[in-house]
Amino acid sequence: MAPPGPASGEGPSRYRTGALFLLPALVLLCVWLVYPTIYTIVRSFFGPSGYLGGWVGIDNYRTLFTTSTLVTAMKNSAIWVAVVPAFVAAIGLIFAVLIERIRWSVAFKTVVFLPMAISAFATGVTWRIMYLQDPSQGAINALGRTVKDAVTPPGVLPSAVPSTGLLQPHGGALILKTPLHPGGVALLGLTGIAPADMPSGSRQAAQPIPKPGNIEGVVWRDFKPGGGKAGVVEQGEIGIRGVTVELRDSSGTVVQSAKTEANGAFDFTNVSAGTYNAGIGGATFAKPFGGYSWLGPSLITPALLIAYIWIWAGFSMVVIAAGLAAMPRDVLEAARTDGASEWQVFRRVTVPLLAPVLSVVFITMVINVLKVFDIVIALAPDSTVANASTIALAMWRTAFSAPFDFGTGSAIAVFLFLLVIPVLALNIRRFKREI
Amino acid sequence: MVADVETVVVPRPHESLAARILRSLAKAPVQILLAVIGLLWLVPTIGLFITSIVPQSAISTAGWWRVFTHPSLATFSNYSALIHDAGLTSAMKTTAYIAVGNTALVVVAGALAGYAFAWLDFPGRDWLFIGVVGLLVVPLQMALIPMFRLYSTLGIGGTVLSVILFHAAFGLPFAIFLLRNFFVGIPKDILESARIDGASEMRIFLRLILPLGLPAIASLAIFQFLWTWNDLIVSLTFGTTPITVWIYGHFREFSQSIDVIAPASFLSLLIPLAVFFAFQRYFVQGLLAGSVK
After folding, report:
1. One domain, residues A358 and A394
2. Does residue A316 share a domain with residue A264?
């Protein structure tokens, strides 16, 4: 005999108990999900304002593909989908495999997973500070400056300019137009140097004395308080030390180079007969690294992708590590015993066995990325937010900032909905299989 | 799972000391690589924290790392100014109300429905369940415009309750899915014997299902709490001011307001971090299951 009770009772009571338990959830779902979904789909065929607005057919969907800001948003979302899931899955896989070899894997996992707990909004703020353009403020550009200065040090006189028209720019260098012969003298005057930027230890400039077979010269700050006469070495004008000077032959090839002394003097010795030009090497004027404009229009999307991958790598690592832990160890050991290298084991055994887990990470990330919103609004300054826009953000900006176009906003939402359905359907099918 | 999956150490009994030293040397590059990556991963968060304890005047001329050479720059004046800011305290309260209210609502409504779908027998049950799970595909962007209109018509826009209800509805499909599948796994005998003893369904739900379903409920609760605590888009749309929206309000002058933005951002992530460290295991479980969302 079936036991008596509401669950297996007859007639209306079965409905009544079920309905009572379901009531709160169903009310919420109907009012906040079912009704809005239907409304938004219908609304997407109507004009910008009012409860419905005028019927416009598929015009809103046309707008979607013809308005440049919306096309930018779709292109950006395509970049997000193409880049983020692959990188997140790959980085997570690498981390998950590597942490099996260390004893402090729990600490590492915790550190990399930490950003998951932080809001995407706070992450945006965090990275905006990292990305500041001035290398003395933004950590990433500071790192860039350290690397760049180690490879190509900034010049001693980045801001200097020639004092007379005789000294002319040539590539990055400055070349004295006056032709020189052995026994000649080169006067390389510069201005535009702040006193504080003068190389230390420089002193009164020396008027070069011609020497047979040599070309003598001076590099000096062709300026003294009150002005002075351009192109003439005068009392009170200071030589510049440590400047690289070059001697070029008539074909323009550098045949000698030298460094100036404390009084700015330099000499090219044993110069064979011919016509030469003297000049100052381009390295002298190399500008210091000014920092990349990470938050500017062209780099904002890469900047966002990096920050987003930073958040989600931990998720990917933890999911994949759980997959690795569940993996049959004897299969791996057998492959190793058979003489497979670590790389072969990874490529031929580990990755194929992890394929289901990797696809979970991948699909999850595709969905997340399509809906990305908070981090863009937090990281991109107002001036570049249009360049950084994504579908979800474009929807919000279209509907909830000027021009408050609910019709097009609804169309973008429906478009997003259509993109998410197939991906999520795949995911639910997988879930059903698992349970 | 972050904490409880231990690497299996395979014992190698016949290994000489030299072989063991060689083996750990071979691991050194991996150790160093991971140590460097781990440190790099912390840099942005550390940067935010240090930025938050340095006066605005210092941060506008030099990077936050200058604190390492000039420790005297560090000050808590940003924080003490912030704590006395009525706007911030009210934003924090709003955040807490939304997060707690939503979590409670989702857990209660989700558990009731999950139980009904798992253990109550009524016609059309499985079809209804499939319909509810199908709602997982609806992105919340689909509901922003209609609910914004509806809230304005009803005059409840900008209230904490309106935001809680919105969040709860979007949390429910997954909550029901998760809890129903967990409740189904509870042994049938326990329920049947309770029914034979004449216990009402509500009593069974409260006394049996909730305690037995606690692991799944905990995961769900933590996940919901963090999701709503960290939300920006819903509150921004409906006009409430939790901490994220409050910080966003200072964005127009980002670098001038950095002494407000940085400490407030750091305050906003303290609670999620505390929840994360306290309930790591449940958090990760919820997240693993939450992959469908």
Report:
1. yes
2. no
| A76 within domain boundaries | yes
Asked if the structure places residue A47 within a domain, the reply is no
CA of B208 to nearest chain A CA: how many angstroms apart? 15
**B37 to A112: CB separation less than 8 angstroms, yes or no:** yes
Which residues of B are less than 8 Å from A374 in CB distance?
Answer: 230-233, 244
Q: Which domain holds residue A378?
A: 59-130+296-434
Residue A221 domain-assigned (yes or no): yes
Interface of B with A in 96-125 (CB under 8 A): 108-110, 112-113, 115-116, 119-123, 125
- Same domain for A301 and A276: no
Q: Is the same domain home to A228 and A274?
A: yes
The answer to whether residue B230 neighbours chain A at the CB level (below 8 Å) is yes
Domains of chain B and CATH, by start: 25-75 (no CATH), 79-287 (1.10.3720.10)
Report the gap between the CA of B127 and the closest CA in chain A (Å): 14
DSSP state at residue A271:
P
Strand order in the sheet with A254-259: A167-170, A173-176, A276-280, A244-249, A254-259
User: How close B13 gets to chain A, by Cα (Å)?
Assistant: 17
Give the domain-ending residue among A234, A260, A285.
A285
Say yes or no: B31 contacts chain A, CB-CB below 8 A.
yes
Give chain A's domain count. 2
Q: Which of A256, A285, A314 is the last residue of a domain?
A: A285
The answer to whether A51 contacts B149, with C-beta atoms less than 8 Å apart, is yes
Four-point Cα dihedral B153, B158, B159, B163, nearest 10? 90
Regarding whether A178 and A126 lie in a shared domain, the answer is: no
Shared domain for A331 and A364, answered yes or no, is yes
**B247 touching A (Cβ < 8 Å):** yes
Q: What is the pLDDT along chain A (435 residues), one digit of tens a residue?
A: 334 444 444 456 667 888 889 999 999 999 999 999 999 999 999 988 877 778 888 899 999 899 999 999 999 999 999 999 999 999 999 999 899 888 888 899 989 988 988 888 889 999 998 888 888 788 888 888 888 877 777 777 777 778 887 888 877 788 888 888 888 888 888 888 877 777 777 788 888 888 888 888 888 888 877 767 788 888 888 888 888 888 888 888 888 888 888 888 888 888 888 888 888 887 777 777 777 888 888 899 999 999 999 999 999 998 898 888 888 888 888 888 888 888 888 888 888 888 888 988 898 899 889 989 989 999 998 888 889 999 999 999 999 988 889 999 999 999 999 998 887 777 667 666 654
Least CB–CB distance from B42: residue in A17, A102, A111:
A111
Assign residue A205 the CATH number of its domain.
2.60.40
Residue B261 contacts A where some CB pair is shorter than 8 Å? yes
B63/A contact by beta carbon, under 8 A? yes
Q: CATH number of the domain that A418 lies in?
A: 1.10.3720.10
Pick A25's closest partner by Cβ from B110, B148, B262: B110
- In a domain, residue A400? The reply is yes
Measured between alpha carbons, how far is A200 from A73 in angstroms, rounded to an integer?
53
The pTM score is 0.81
Can you tell me the distance from the alpha carbon of A182 to that of A270, in angstroms, rounded to the nearest whole number?
8
Task: Choose among B2, B196, B292: nearest Cβ to A106.
Answer: B2
Could you give the ipTM of this predicted complex?
0.85
Q: Does B36 touch chain A (CB under 8 A)?
A: no
In chain B, residues with a C-beta closer than 8 Å to the C-beta of A371 are 139-141
